[in-house]
Amino acid sequence: MKRFFPWLVLMLAAGWVIASFFPPKTKPGGPDLVTFGKLPVLVGGRVKPLDTVARNSLLIVHGKQTLLLPDGRELSAIQWLADLLFNPRLADGAPLFVIRSPEVLSLFGWEQSDRKYFSFNELASFGKQIDEQGEQSEKLESVQRSSFQSEILNLRNALVLYQRVKNSLRPDDAEGFSKELDAYAAAIPPAVEAAGHREKGETFDKSKLEAVVGFVGRYQNIANMAYMFAVPANSPQWQPIGAALLQALSTGEIHPIVRAYAELGDAYEAGDSRAFNQQVSTLHDWFAKDQPVATKRTSFEFFFNHVDPFSHSMDLYLLAFLLACGSWLVWTRPLNRAAFYLLLLTLAVHTFGLISRMYLQERPPVTNLYSSAIFIGWGAVIVALILERIFRDGIGAACAGAIGFTTLIIAHHLAGSGDTLEMLQAVLDTNLWLATHVVVVTTGYAAMFLAGMLAMIYIIRGVFTPSLKKPIADSLARMTYGVVCFATLFSFVGTVLGGIWADQSWGRFWGWDPKENGAVLIVLWCAITLHARWGGFIRQRGLMIMAIFGNIVTSFSWFGVNMLGVGLHSYGFMEKAFPWLCAFIASQLALMAVAAMPLERWRSFRGTIASDRKTLRRDEAPVPSPAN
Amino acid sequence: MLRKFIDLLTSLKLTIVCLAAGMILIFAGTLAQVHLGIWEAQQRYFQSMVVWWPAESRGFQIPIFPGGHLIGAVLLVNLIAAHVKRFQWNLRKLGIHLTHAGLIIMLAGGLFTDLFAVESNMRLSNGDTKNFSEAPRKVELAVIDTSDPELDQVTAIPEALLRRGGTIEHNSLPFRIVVRNFFQNSRLKMASEAGGSLKPIANQGPGAQVVVEPVPRATGMNDRDLVSAAVEIITPERSLGTWLVSDALGAPQTFSAGGRTWQLAMRPARYYKPYSVTLQKFTHEKYAGTEIPKNFASKVTLIDPERSVNRNVLIYMNHPLRYRGETYYQAGFEPDDRTTILQVVRNPSFIAPYVACIVVAAGLLVQFGYHLVGFSRRRRAVPA
Q1: In chain A, what is the straight-line distance between the N-terminal and C-terminal CA atoms, in Å?
Q2: Which of A215, A287, A324, A627 lies in disulfide reach of A397, CB 3.0 to 4.6 Å?
Q3: What is the DSSP letter of A524?
Q4: What's phi and psi for B117, nearest 5 deg?
């Protein structure tokens, strides 16, 4: 059993991951929402599958990627989107919008209850109030908003998004949209003729012109509102359906995509799955022929969404962490092995996710805060696994599990604002610097967190358990020291590369931007730590305390400076993250205080110290170094 | 005594104290940026010898912390002194020497940049041609002799000279200029709207109907001081009167003296170039269906008769134009999307960080690589 245990764990985990590689099945006789979910549209400047649009929109409006209906059914994102687009009367009744603040509820004259989700129908009559309040709080900087103001603004933005999505493929009050289009198409030629007469000053039939005017206003409206651009056009880029319909005035023809979406919608509303599936496959074939590259990418993105590599990795990292910690108590070899194998598998899944994102975005791995979290986790896990391979004592594995899990949790919470593959601001539009400066500097962050994690293990094991034997303590110290060196190199080079980028783009090597300051704080802290060690001012324990403080410095540089809301790097203020950051810093300070206790009070050192203090002092000699 | 001082100067403790002080300074300075704006915080914390408290008061101030220049200088001296004292030429120390040599280059380069780099900007609307760039935060009083229809003769009086006040004389000017009032930051109001408390300080030109209200120096990130002054023009014969000159007044004011026509204008300080830049077209692209900027680009024509250059250049994000020691960057635009703002930088020591980065990176690699080799050798010697 002991021998097979690691393999058993690995096989179970692999089976679990592989199971998600198989595409979801369509209910026989039901609408083919899988193919529907792969259809490409342009949103936020990027061509993506409807499935991504559904997931992101639902995440923004509802805070989750699935929707629980009052009758107990759970709708997937794409089911919800199909309802919203083609059967809005049904969707409007679903409890969707999140309201937590009692102040917002009282604005509508509602009392606080257990409910936190409200439907569009319930909120519709308060539209004007929500709009006014939202507009007022929009004028404030995000730092200045009260919780009421930020919640009402979120609600307003969610309602706007909801309305825009709803009017993306057809007006939300359309009944039998393909019939409407027939009427429109029939009305165009006479109207064009009448307009021609009018231009020449001849008599013309006014009613024929007016027949079109109603349509034009209606389509102009959805063209302005549309969230998705569904019709690929050569110039300039994709168009909303409304714009394509207006174009029909001059071409005299309605674009086949518009027709197909109209029939698709009518079939969905009527519950005619066969007709729906037929239209879906027509659309799919059309896109595959007309937009082969985009279709390939959106199909892959659909697969990527479905596999969801980061959620899988998150769970597996946690399991590996527990196995590694367990290995220090019982069953050392098998648990240690199992943790290591499991981590290799998880790293593979994590890497798959990272590379998929790079393929989808055609960018280096780090382009925003979300991807920095994913990359920091990835980098730290690799270094930790190298340590584990060298030392084989479960410490590297525990660090890999803990950091992998934590960074992916952070990434998960950062994804709440919508598309994590968003387009880049013009300044950032350079793969060279994204690939060098950003990657190197985030690798430096990863190393700092890894050093901090090693130090935490040292202190927790030393203070609270008797398990920190001298060889373990020494190897932990060596690992921490080595990782701090690694962090110094990467943080320094990354920071200077950032300066060089700035010099190339703004002519200013150093601008004292908060993010730059954060990066230089890390470099300075590394320099202090290393010099203090070389000068003999600190020993093992001092190194550990300083490495934990490194966690604080790094978290300030990674997140804290963004919360200041100044400078070029302030991509997104995250008020929700603020208490978490404070809690993290407090926990690290507490650990430092614990570590500062006299060594006699540490459980691992109790006996040794009482018997011979001097031995320990001598054993604690600094890591050999050729420093001055 | 000297010995002790040298020991202190070369000590590792001093290095650590400086680094720690640097961290505290940068942390405090970063937080201060929230209220002061990046530029002002930079002046007070990083580009100063000491940080003063309270920062605002004009009277009593005490230094509370060493500023960026002081810490940087001490660190530089410490670094150089320690190396001079302990320098040994052997391979084991190669990494450390390289790293520190790179840091010396970087700190010295930073100091050089602070002293000698000049940043200015050039604002061009479609079709405009300019042969000068303007300082973002410095003004000058331009006295322009317009009597020659071919060529304007400009005498520029820098802000610092105006601030000092008194009488200004120059060979090219057949009159004296006496600075009567100087306002570092001010607000202008029509005298009719201001009520009775303030009186106009000028008696000539449009300034005679305007009152000037002094206001505290601007601290916001995008705020600028509005410098104003009242100057009296005195020819050898008589006083011509007092003019109000201000950045806010716009069009230059005209007067005659010594048989010639002159213009007076307070304007951003100009840096003239021996060549000219013409904006052909500014473009601002957005991603379809979003407000996210995709690219900003300025198509300009560069004309330099001296070097017989006449060519079109596209300046866009991350792709500046480098010409005759100056670099033009796409820095901004006006909301109408017709006007571009180019940042113009002259920085003779721009190469320092590039060299420093390579040297330090090499040094760290050698140093840590040396540790790593030693470490794995020891591990192999003692199998676990």
Answers
A1: 54
A2: A324
A3: H
A4: -75, 140
